[in-house]
Amino acid sequence: MISKKQKISKLESKKTKTSLKAKLEPYAFLFPSLLIFGLFVYYPFFKTLYMSFGLTNARGEFQEFIGLQNYVEIFTSPDFINSLIVTMEFVIMTTIPSVVIGLALALLANNKIKGIGISKVMYAVPIAVSSASAAIIWRIIFHPSIGMLNNILKTNIGWLLDPKWALLSVAFVTIWMNAGVNFIFIFAGLKNVPQEILESSSIDGARYFTKLFKIIMPMISPTLFFMVFMDIMNAFQSFGQINILTNGGPGNSTNVLVFSIYREAFFNGRFDTASAQSIILFILMAVIAMFQFSYEKKGVHYS
Q1: Which of 109, 167, 210, 270 has the fewest CB within 10 Å, making it most exposed?
Q2: pLDDT tens, residue by residue, 82-140
Q3: Which residues of 218-237 are buried (b: 16+ CB within 10 A; e: fewer)?
Q4: pLDDT tens digits for 191-225?
């Protein structure tokens, strides 16, 4: 016969095992994602941070700890300062037009016009084209002698060869690629605007632009905020189109920070200074993201 104490002890041990299993079960589900993030996000980040405080050889192997010397070197480098300025110019040149064009296309597609379905597909086409493919296409269009653009405009401009036009040309291609993504997200946001409110405002005599700025824009402000945030982050990380179109030139006029990191590491063999530049880029993006989210509640209206 099993005594009462033995029964109680068995029940307690069973409860302990069950509670332990319940506590460990969520971590078992999280383990695969934590493993992937650890290997491909956290480890590379901390390795980059560690390398930024040292000297490395041409193969990227850590040789000697030198503290902040790499950061002092790059902040006193005219090329790095130029990369920072070019990067900020590129972000401003691409972000605002991308959102405005995406919004304009979405508003146009939201109207019930005959044949607008074909236009929706045309607006979204850039999404299906990779940055490398788009860059190759636009490189042919921008060609000074055989390019379509000069033939149409009857000009002889070296769009990718002239420092005055190179950054603007790369920014135009980036806007073309981003506008399609912005269009889809903003168009989806417009579909969530209640038609009853718009019809009621029309009955009250509100005109289109009144409805746009007083009703539509506030109601899709979360979507617009998201697109602005994503466009800024993507602009800071733009690489493919710059690599193919201009290779950072002419005269470092399109040498944005990401391309500067790539060139410093894989062409100059300076993985230490490239790591330091990567950390500075991360801090810059983090500061801008925090600044954006600090003003989110003032400009974004959640229904």
Answers
A1: 210
A2: 999 999 999 999 999 999 999 988 888 887 666 666 767 777 777 778 888 889 999 99
A3: ebbbbbbbebbbbbbebbbe
A4: 888 888 888 888 888 888 888 888 888 889 889 99
Q: What class, spelled out in words, does domain 76-299 have in CATH? A: mainly alpha
Q: Could you tell me the two tokens for 257?
A: 């920070």
Domain boundaries, the chain: 4-69, 76-299
